[in-house]
Amino acid sequence: MVNLRVLVEAFKSLARCVTIKYPFGPPAYTPEGMRGKPEFDMEKCVGCGGCFNCCPPEAITIMEEDGKRRIEINLGKCLYCATCQEVCPEDAITLTSKFELAVYDLSQAKETVEVSQVKCENCGCYFAPEPQISKVRDRVLSKINPVQKETIEKDFQVYSKYCPTCRKQLSFKLNYHPRKYY
Amino acid sequence: MGLKAWSRVKSPWIMFAPCGGCNGCHIEIVACLTPRYDVERLGIKITGSPRQADILVVAGHVSKQITKALKRIYEQIPDPKVVVAVGSCALTGGVFYGEGDYVSYGLGGPVNKIIPVDVYVPGCPPKPEAIIHGIALAIQKLKEKV
Amino acid sequence: MSFSYENLKEKIVSRLRENLGEDYLGEYEGREGRLYVNVRSGTIKLIAEMLKNEFDARLVTISVNDFGFKGFEVLYHYAFDYKDKVFTKNLTLTVKTLIPRENPEIDSITSIYYSAVYAEREMSELNGITFKGLIDPRHFVLPYEWPHEVEGVEVKKIVDFAPEEQRKKVGKWIPLPVDIEGKPELSIVPIGPFHPAFVEAWYYRLKVDGEKIIEADLKTGFNHRGIMKLMEKRSYWRNIYISERVCGICSHTHTSAYCRTVEMLGNIELPDRGRYIRTFIKELERIHSHLLWAGVGMDLIGYKTAFMWFWRDREHVLDIFEMVSGNRVLHAMNIIGGVRRDITRDMIPKIERKLDIVERAAKNYVKMATTEPLIRKRTVGVGVLTKDEAKEVGVVGPTARASDVGIDVRKDDPYLAYGETSWDMVTRPDGDVYAKVIVRLLEVLQSISICRQCLDLLKTVGGPIQAEVPREFPEGEEAIGRVEAPRGELAYYIRSNGTHIPDRVRIRTPSFLNNPSTLYMLRNQTIADAPIIIASVDPCIACTDRSIKIVLEDVKEKKVKPVSFSMLAEKSRLKSRRM
Lengths: 182, 146, 579
Known about the structure:
With 182 residues, chain A is α+β, with helices and mostly antiparallel strands. Chain A has seven helices and six strands, in the order αβαββαβββαααα.
């Protein structure tokens, strides 16, 4: 005895096919807001390390060598949870909708960004990433009283060449004390 | 390519070994058989016996109690064979690995400490389309080995 | 037993004072009306008998706190929900006792409550406590090399820090004694750990006589990850991502239980929109889990076509998840104090269209399950669990509701938006596999109606989706949170110690209580029915094998954690700095 329900469903699926043609056609459903592969925006990253602090499985690592700071996401450990996207102050990380990430070699599954650092002229140590200093200067100068703008710009150019320890040591020589702005 | 090699590549048989973990990757692998993604139209079949398989798919972190069983299954599959590791836990231990010095005592290690792996599919869990992409890469590798 | 629920707290306290006399040390109230009672350790069996006979209580779980040289504190959590009642806050009673560290022994209550067997086996293995009179004292979860090979460190180096008696040696798992010599017609059939019918790894041993099963035995522990110990090293906020990965099918339920317990610790109130969105995702997850289970069940019977139909209609639910949260499985929507993403106005019509498709399909499946001859022949009268057996073993969830035991945390202890929406609890009197199928399919229809009510509420209410949360929680607070997962009741117990890292987290999942009931149901059935009986309780082995914390502290001011030598050195430095 033939089952009537099975026949009815079979005719319905002949009329409208449910299967997608994936490797030979587009994937099924990729809405916006989907959490796929995380990608860095090279111009916006300031190298602050906020994403490194908040990553739950510790998939983000920071390495410093040769005057450059390199931030790396290990895609094999990443949970694709989008916490780094929420925490980043410059919106430099976005989770795109790419999901085809299979590789033959595990060391290729990573995403990196490199930021150069400023060298102190007195002691030679690398003390801060360069985009941080230039962004701070632009933001301070855009909101300050135009009367003080010129002095502050000149001072900024001198002070941003020394690390905080050397700035304290050479404070007399550089005329570095906050009261001169009052 | 001879007739034997052509038939092996055009219809690979897959053995699925669930090695613990949270089951997220397992339900995405079984969802590849359902009508929407339907891998059987590409010639792929799931078998229960390792003696009849070409590709071994491993998902889940591998706990200490299951390492012996996994090694035995790998040795029973006849050559040529390809191993695919699916999901964050199988690649690096994922969120169960611990931080700093501390490694969770229940972990037998990521899969490539126990058996050699050919294709890695990252994701937590990866979409069924990403798994199909990984299996397509595995079939490419099988073609070279035959 | 006829009594009213109005003065339950006072009645319990007065009866305990009468019976125990001097051994009763005091009581205090915790958050949301939970009651905590301190007693001396010799009276535990007496209290268990009294609570079972007079008040018809149900054991939720047993947990252990480790206080160093002060000793171990053992906690017994009870609930009182076997009676019918209207929407009132249900009482949870916790009985606490202290046992000394040099001689950790206590009476076992497995002869009164069978549901304590798994919990006591786990405690005795991981904390070193001896339960006198335990029914089944065999190996449970730890790896076989424990403690001789712990991260490659030799035991001789650690033995200076802890006395040898406290380190329990874990041998191999021994199956129950089988007397088949002299009876050549009996034999043993092992199923697992790798089996093509099961998606997870566990090991059943069936003692059979021809085709009939006489007895069954179960070994779990292949999925042990050490989760509760991992949770004690990270902050409250990072633990959400670990608790999400305890089980992939009920992941949102685990995070809601964890967040509910932490919110009870800190006295945090959720905003309205956050509550409705959380309830909406929770009911969607119940629909997806029941459809998944129905498909797997049909596959085990042999009706592969129905397996494909169920999973095809489940894809619409996963599309809604992807639209709202960004991922099909493991949607990280919860955070302490609210949710992370919002449901906007243009999403709502698309969601309602997909819900219409699922509702039409679900009604079709209910009709199919009641009239299709294949399903009825394979499931009616198979694997029966009577009402008395269900109460004795202590099952929860749809397994209990199919045996006429009406317990549901959403009705007994209302939370989120379940008090504001109207829905019914589904029960059936038979107790066989057919009743379990019908209960789950009818629950899908109830969940769809709750989802529609939540969407209507979301259209009218505005406001934020998260509340303000402190970074550290006060010292010495504890809380128990209970939540209804698709498989039953899920309980979390958290204790805080004044920092941003929790002191102790104890998880008790519903599969812990449901899995041993298969050993009752498998008697006198045939081998061919074994897979469908085992699958009818919806076993989730990922939920059953977690772990608890092991801290061995010596009285001589040296802290020890028997997992890594560098951790030992760090802890001893910390302790001497504190002293």
